[in-house]
Design brief:
alpha/beta, Rossmann fold, Alpha-Beta Plaits, eleven-stranded mixed sheet, 14 helices, binds NADP nicotinamide-adenine-dinucleotide phosphate, binds L-homoserine
């Protein structure tokens, strides 16, 4: 016997629109497979006049968000509108009213997670967000369930499809940054405001969630240092390839120095690292633990269809729990932990420095690093005269010391500019 669950959806854009099509078109198939009748009762959007790719009965579409949350025929809320304030208040209201919530909104989870998880715990309903990280890749459940007993040491993730798509096209086809970004927007990979993608903020929200689940210490969005890809030049992608590296925007979460560190920035990663071969909008999360060794989760990280699949899985899971009628407890309990400031994290740097080609320059540049306590690993000179470039890779040093070396470099008269800084990820010191 099938059992009916009333579903209310807040937002029907790239992800919400695809989800609604799946719920409507695949209703019978879902019922046959799961025994659940998932009925879309109400869908809230901003603009009622906009053309939609899905069809729902008259009266289902509304621009009154709260009417969806308050509708007594709605058992379960799906939030796919984005943002943290309005979306967060609606999610909170739903949870407090004892309605399970499914969301793909990483910004919301990373900024208001503890408040929302606590509300879900109080009323004993599921609050699920599998689609918030990695689009269609199952990663939230593996981290919070399968790997719950593993003392995970490190998580490295390509967690933004838009930027990986841009970097791949720039490196492989020499494509223009702005053109590829427009293409990513057309394909539905980018956020409504793509600044969140290219600035690393979207990946920072995902890194915060991954770190929190991996280590059991809550890491909020504001705890994650982030840099984006806006300042990367194609020439550095070429130099990186010459030296045997790929450049990727990577979220890094690790246990170090007795605490937890989470950060997002472009990284030069050796071409034989599993993340180096991740192309296009594909996402990948690489996990290291003492017992499990190395795990790689990879797949489509953005776009309506894969993301809606992850949302639908959560909807089915939440519907099952609702029908079972049991109180649901959060899978992971968060305990206080030390967050390591980014300045204390040891990183290796690649720098491209434009210099005057004259005697003594190299000594001055080396002195800038030396006086900050940073040791140089390799130096190459490219070009001559006005075109002279130094390409430098340092050994691992405290980020704060690397920054101090940068300030010293910028004070040298013969240094015309420090044109690029990219952190290097490798096993060596
Ligand atoms: P989107 O295409 O911009 O859709 C947003 C939807 O929310 C639209 O239907 C919009 O209405 C509605 N909406 C926004 N503000 C509203 C308001 N104040 N009142 C009523 N309706 C409002 O966004 P999306 O790409 O589907 O992303 C949705 C969420 O999923 C975001 O949290 C995003 O981070 C997350 N996500 C997206 C992807 C992806 O690949 N796109 C992947 C994973 C997670 P109108 O249609 O009338 O404008
Ligand atoms: N804008 C995001 C991305 C969507 O490009 O990865 C998936 O969260």
């Amino acid at each position: 016997m099938n059992t009916s669950i009333g579903v209310g959806v807040l937002g029907a854009g790239t992800v919400g629109g695809t989800l609604i099509s799946r719920l409507v078109d695949d209703r019978e198939a879902i019922a046959t497979k799961t025994g659940l009748e998932l009925c879309v009762k109400r869908v809230a959007v901003r603009d009622l006049a906009k053309e939609r790719d899905f069809t729902v009965d008259d009266g289902v579409l509304t621009d009154d968000l709260l009417s969806v949350v308050n509708d007594p025929e709605i058992d379960l809320i799906v939030e796919l509108m984005g943002g943290r304030d309005l979306a967060g208040d609606l999610v909170l209201a739903a949870l407090e009213a004892g309605k399970p919530v499914v969301t793909a909104n990483k910004e919301l989870v990373a900024s208001r997670g503890p408040e929302l998880i606590a509300a879900a715990e109080r009323t004993g309903v599921p609050f699920l967000f599998e689609a918030a990280v990695g689009g269609g890749i199952p990663i939230i459940r593996p981290l919070s369930e399968t790997l719950a007993g593993e003392p995970i040491e490190r998580v490295l993730g390509i967690v933004n499809g838009t930027t990986n798509f841009i970097l791949t096209r720039m490196a492989e086809d020499g494509a223009d940054y702005a053109d590829v970004l427009a293409e990513a927007q057309e394909l539905g990979y980018a956020e409504p405001d793509p600044t969140a993608d290219v600035s690393g903020a979207d990946a920072a929200a995902k890194a915060a969630i991954l770190a929190s689940l991996a280590f059991g210490t809550w890491v909020g969005l504001d705890d994650v240092y982030h840099e984006g890809i806006e300042d990367l030049s194609p020439i550095d992608l070429v130099f990186a390839a010459d030296f045997g590296y790929s450049v990727k925007l990577i979220g890094i979460a690790e246990r170090i120095m007795g605490g937890v560190s989470a950060r997002v920035h472009p990284v030069m990663i050796p071409v034989d690292h599993p993340l180096a071969s991740i192309r296009g909008a594909t996402n990948a999360i690489f996990i290291q633990g003492p017992s499990v060794g190395e795990l790689l989760f990879a797949g489509p990280g953005a776009g309506g269809a894969p993301t809606a699949t992850a949302v639908l899985g959560d909807v089915i899971d939440a519907a099952r729990e609702t029908l079972a009628g049991a109180q649901v407890a959060p899978k992971i309990r968060f305990s206080p932990g030390e967050l390591v400031p980014f300045g204390d994290v040891a990183t290796k740097w690649y720098l491209r420095i434009e210099v005057d080609d004259q005697p003594g320059v190299l000594a001055q540049v080396a002195g800038a690093f030396g006086s900050a306590g940073v040791s140089i690993k390799s130096v190459w000179q490219e070009g001559e005269g006005d075109e002279a470039l130094l390409l430098i890779v340092t050994h691992r040093a405290r980020e704060a010391d690397q920054q101090e070396a940068l300030r010293h470099l910028e004070e040298i008269d013969t240094v015309r500019s420090v044109a690029a800084v990219i952190r290097v990820e490798s096993e060596e010191a």
